[in-house]
Amino acid sequence: MLDFDDAQTRLANGAPLPRATTETPLREAAGLVLARDLTATLDLPPADNSAMDGYALRHADYRPGATLPIDQVVYAGQAPGPLAPGHAARLFTGSLMPPGADTVVMQEDTRVVGDRLEITQAPRAGQHVRRRGEDTAAGSPLLPAGTRIGPAQIALLASQGIASVVVHPAVRVGILTTGDELVAPGQPREAHQIYNSNGAMMAALVEGMGARATQVLHAQDTETALRSAFQKLAQDCDMIVSIGGVSVGDKDLVKPVLESLGAELDLWRVRMKPGKPVAMAHIDGKPVVCLPGNPVSAFAVFTVLVSPLLRRMQGRRDLFPPVSRQRLRTDSPRQDSREEFLRVRLAIDDGGVAGLQPFDRQGSGVVSSLPWATGLARIPAGQTVRDGEMVAYYDFQHWLS
Length: 401
Ligand code: AMP
Ligand code: MG
Known about the structure:
19% of the residues lie in helices and 31% in strands. The protein is α+β, with helices and mostly antiparallel strands. A hairpin with a 5-residue loop joins strand 24 and strand 25. Adenosine monophosphate binds next to strand 14 and helix 3. It holds the Pfam family MoCF_biosynth. It catalyses: adenylyl-molybdopterin + molybdate = Mo-molybdopterin + AMP + H(+).
């Protein structure tokens, strides 16, 4: 049996880095990954400006109790004139500083009498001024290649006037569910059938990470059906995830079918629970990952084993999201001969302390545990973990993004 960490490393290295690039409008870039380092070309802000609604002056002109004539009003978006010595200018948030002015007083700290300004709080020299380039200086690194683009990155790029970016095209993932017992949601179901949850689940997992589930197929447990499904996916997709049919049962035909397609198959029994049978193969250099059929196992194995591989194919640099240490809350000691990933919920107790609450039924068929859980707690193989002890926590928000 293969150790969990070895399996994770092997899978994460199971594909070459992406080479294809495409230029995409910024508006459509969310979820995609930058293919080039980007450097700032603009100072931001482009000129000194006011951080407050208020008045600009030379700090040296301030005297307690004295009043300054107001010689101009500058709205955001207007070009100011120079500030005459001994004068003040009316400004608003984002108004450019008139040449000569160095300090802003907020209007709450002033009184206006006629056209003269009285300052009621002694200002600090330079206060409330946003300096040219203090946010981003022209020439400084903006975002490195490998960054996944989200709303924050889009804000930064737009602030530089960037309207399109060079990205890696979204990874096209083909999903194949298997099993004679399955019927698609929305279809009539016979008593001996169950609904297919893995297809829709896996598509959502893949798309939540910024890839595209371009094909979601289902095959009956026959070699012919499996073979033609794998062939189609290998043609149309960059990566294949199959679910089910990879164990040692009579109808577990994925392995022989992949071999008949010339794929070199690494079948691992990974020392993890849930999950044990996991396989990786390549067809025409494209990775094929085969996951166990139980939806809970498929979900957990995708989270901790497959997501790093997908990140690599996307061109992302951080393949392994953070794993934090959290306190496990458990009624009875936990231990297993395999690495166990408990479905847990991170909850804050009355004292404000975070703890991991395991779902009460940890069977790998218990799908209702998935929407309840916020992540997976890792119980190391062969160790006993008692209530209050610290364990590694894989948060779905990090691992599935
Ligand atoms: P398998 O790995 O094919 O032996 O499947 C293991 C278990 O997961 C069996 O109980 C299957 O019925 C169930 N299963 C497999 N595929 C799916 C699916 N797509 N949706 C729901 N349950 C599934
Ligand atoms: Mg099956």
